[in-house]
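fold description:
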Amino acid sequence: MNEEAELLRQRGEPVIHLGIGEPKNKAPINAILNSTAKLRSGDIKYSPTDGIPSLKKAIIQYTEENYDKRVEPENIIVSSGAKQAIYNILFALLNPQDEVIIPAPYWVSYPEIVKMVYGVPVIVTPEDGGLHPRMVDITRAVSPSTKVIIVNSPNNPSGLVFSRDFIKEIVEFCEEKRIYLIMDDIYHKLVFDGKKATSCYEFASQDIEESHVISVNGVSKLYGMTGFRIGWAIAPTNLVRVMTNIQTQTTACASVVLQAAAEGALTGIQSVVENLRLTIENNRNVIMQELKSFLGVRTVPPDGTFYCFPDFTAYQTDSVKLSEFLLKKALVVTVPGKEFGMEGRLRLSFAGSVNEIIEGIDRMKWALDPSSPNEIYIGDRKMVRNWL
């Protein structure tokens, strides 16, 4: 659908993108200055496979300040995005047919990465019909082949921040059963209403060298630096060594210029994070208000990220068909819930501008809701709904 939307844009069609997961902000000035200084030096060579020392130092400080956890450089590996970090972890840990438990809804890449390294994704959908994972469902899915559980909070696509009790239970369970727990924390500071994402390390009783808890983070979402592709993982030293061997034979190392940018973001003025968070929270409020007047749509207000995951089953249970219909009729890009493990829903991003959010939801209402006006302007064309 992204490809179709781009073709429509090239033809001059006024497409609104409520699917893309990246904020509209500019990169932090400290990130730009740090990368510019590296470029001006002309010293653009290979870096250590696991990351440049100065960036690792910044990650250590960031982890101590935000997780209250002291880690060593040997516990950190820097990768070309958090996605590569997750791939490296699963490549390192899984043997063929090892199982990875993935609570639904989940980020679309998790099961695909598991399959790429010959693992078996085990999707666990809450039996209560909700969006928050439940330990009773997860423990029921555990088998002797279970090697890893992946948890993403704040969650893409639901925007939910998982409860403190759940994080405590999952950490303690994984440590007891010696199952690796990957905590994907890429959105961990983009939370609303005074809430806070619970740190996995708060409940990890074992030393980092013995613990099976692995945290993944990066600069893409927190600083709106999606194109810089710098992420990292914090894990036991032995696992980091294996991941480093994997990375040596694939990408060799992350770009030294982009690592310098990430270091600048982490060590620079952090008000940029709060400014972005406030903008996204305001956008969340706007899209929730717009969805309230959308007859038949049910949604849980997100606690964080820049996504919501409304239920559109009143209109169409096939989310792929619904997304295709909305792109064709309303020129609005959405992401089918099927790709996140839950049918009948659409993931809507509110990372764009307020005007895009309001107009995008208005177009969707016009296309689907019989109580909405029969006519609408899309761009400079007056469109008449003739299919309801």
